[in-house]
Design goal:
This protein has 137 residues and is mostly helical. It contains 4 helices and no strands. Helix 2 crosses helix 4 and helix 3 crosses helix 4.
Length: 137
């Protein structure tokens, strides 16, 4: 059963990759705009991080009867960043294509944002372990 699960996950990932490549080719051909890029992932991941930590801050302040405005502001900034990415897609393409594949992209970027955030944290942890090198002549 484990092998079938792994094969199924790999098949779904391959299908998603094929869809992403097709959407990028189509949007580049018809709109001269590449839909799935690393920059879009970075901007969307920042928006999702703001929403996540803003929600955590809001819930913590709500449980302690503290100031909930900080969490609300962070969530608002995150929502504005994510929606601005969707509006940018709609503006650069058509309303139907931009809305449908923009929402598809935002859904796909949720797990990609988590993986990206963890990779950045590991990169910072690795850089923190770097020791200075002294040259004594």
């Amino acid at each position: 059963m484990t092998v079938l699960t792994i094969i199924g996950i790999l098949a779904v990932l391959a299908l998603i990759f094929v869809i992403i490549e097709y959407v990028n080719k189509y949007s580049m051909k018809h709109y001269r705009y590449e839909f799935f890029t690393w920059a879009n992932l970075a901007v969307t991941a920042v928006g999702y991080v703001f929403i996540f930590f803003g929600h955590n801050w809001y819930v913590e302040a709500l449980s302690k009867s503290g100031d909930i405005l900080n969490g609300q502001i962070l969530m608002g900034i995150g929502v504005v960043v994510v929606l601005s990415m969707l509006v940018n897609h709609i503006r650069r393409t058509s309303i139907l294509f931009g809305t449908f594949f923009g929402v598809f992209q935002l859904i796909l970027y949720v797990p990609a944002s988590v993986v990206s955030f963890l990779a950045v944290i590991m990169l910072f942890a690795w850089a923190a372990e770097t020791k200075p090198v002294y040259n004594i002549n």
